[in-house]
Amino acid sequence: MPNASKIIHLIGYGVYLACTRIAKLLPRKLVFSAGQTLGFLGYHILRGRRHVAIENIMLALDKTESEAAGLARQHFGNLGANMLSALKIATMSDEEILKCVTLDIPPELEARAKAAGDKPGWVAMISHMGNWEILSHLSPIFPYYKYGAIYHKLANDYVDRHFKETRARSGVMLFDRREGYLKCATFLRSGGVVGVLVDQYAGLPGTWMPFFKRLTSTSTLAALLAQRAGVDIVPISINTTGLAKWHVTISMPISRGDDVEILTARINEELEKEIEASPADWLWSHNRWKTPRWMFLFTKNERRVFYPPTFDPNSLIPYRILIRSPEDLKEAKASAPAALAIKRGRPDAHITMVAPKALEAFWKDAEGVDEILAIAPGESAGDVANKIKGFGRFDVGILFSKTFRAALEMWQGGVPYRVGPPHRFLLNDWANSKGLGDPPETGAWRYGRIAEAVGAKLPE
Fold first, then answer.
1. Per-residue pLDDT for 116 more than 80?
2. Domain for residue 296, yes or no?
3. What would the mean pLDDT of 329-356 be, rounded to a whole number?
4. Residue 27, preceding bond cis, omega within 30 degrees?
5. Can you give the residue range of the structural domain that contains 196?
6. Could you point out which of 51, 182, 231, 436 has its C-alpha 20 to 30 Å from the C-alpha of 98?
7. Is residue 295 a part of any domain in this protein?
8. pLDDT number for residue 122
9. What is the pLDDT of residue 435?
10. What is the pLDDT of residue 429?
């Protein structure tokens, strides 16, 4: 109902305005402390986000679970403090902002910025580090340029309109990404600075490349804009340095002489350095390495994978796929081509086959299977689930077996994304397979359709 949606948006806008007014009245340090307390509370309440943050930290920074949990708690505290402080920053004068923000910039860049006459613009490589609201107030901090940003329209029209008005008052020109980038490129050529977020998952259209040695969908927008406008990319990061205090670092430009994908890979490398320098400030609770629903393999849709020239593909953190074998040898043989197609579906795929002990020898000799988790006679579903947990984190599970027990093992084993009929209520969303329908009860056709549904390409 359009009217109901409008009312909900109006209520949300009212809550947002009320929070902004309250933040304006309170001292800056009190707002920061209140936000930090809310962040620590969120760490305990938001179990799903906490789990994502801990998993991401463990894999990206090679931390133990206890170390990752401690860093995740700091992240939630910083996130709460900085998000609430963003409301306060938006109401502060330039003079007040300068009291709580320090700037670090190479002398060469500062000299170029202060130079008289026409100055080249640049693409600001920005991310969700620290209090990113400060990025919209660069004019008082670094007052030598005019500023703009690529933005995506907010779902709430009232908040969106307020957001644009606030940015306009602070001298920031917004470029809606849905309207193309011609105006943005013109702004850059005329000496403007445009902020582009570079740290978010880019979805199916993105280029897959390593970030902390894990393949993830990456946007090439910042590099593309820089190349088209003929300008540099300049990294900007914000660190939380104390109670309602922040440090802005503007680094030396990334060379624009390389092609778009090499330039994007260098952006990823620079972002890694920024995160490692202040890990509690980055948005770990956003799943930068998320598993796409259904098409998490690359071969069927021929997704682009790119490695930097100096990167060793063998150093990739594997994408771990758990496959539950059929129960008998005939069906296992019929499913082997589909298992191999899944293995070939992405370059970082690592296949663990869960199979009855009687089929262990068959799967050990099967091409494409990296390791076996054998089910001994008499082991319960709970026993197998505990074994799955003992094998470490899996990204996805694929069910070739038709039994309810097999689906239960995978679910109890903590595999986050599970596909393959039957027993849909223990799986994620088999019904969203876009007309695939239910495969026949047995045979290679059944397993092939499951493999194709997740993005594998079978031989003709």
1. no
2. no
3. 96
4. no
5. 2-281
6. 231
7. no
8. 92
9. 44
10. 62
Task: Give the DSSP letter string of 305-319.
Answer: B---TT--GGGSPPE
Write phi, then psi, for 355 (nearest 5 degrees).
-145, 150
Nearest to 42 by CA among 219, 206, 284, 365: 284
Q: Are residues 221 and 331 in the same domain?
A: no
**Which domain CATH number covers 373?**
3.40.50.2000
Average pLDDT of span 63-84 = 96
What 3-state DSSP class applies to 392?
Answer: coil
Q: Residue 268 pLDDT > 90, yes or no? A: yes
3-state secondary structure (DSSP) of residue 217? strand
Structural element, H or E, at residue 68? helix 65-89
DSSP 314-351: GGSPPEEEEEE--SSHHHHHHHHHHHHHHHTTSTTEEE
DSSP secondary structure code for residue 145 in this structure: S
Q: Is 244 left (phi over 0), alpha (psi -120 to 50) or beta?
A: left
Same domain (yes/no): 373, 423: yes
For 241, residues 6+ apart whose C-beta sits below 8 A from its C-beta are 102, 247
Residue 291 located in a structural domain: no
272 with 335, same domain: the answer is no
Instruction: Tell me, yes or no, whether 120 and 215 share the same domain.
Output: yes
User: With pLDDT > 90 as the criterion, what percentage of the chain qualifies?
Assistant: 60
Average pLDDT across the chain, whole number: 88
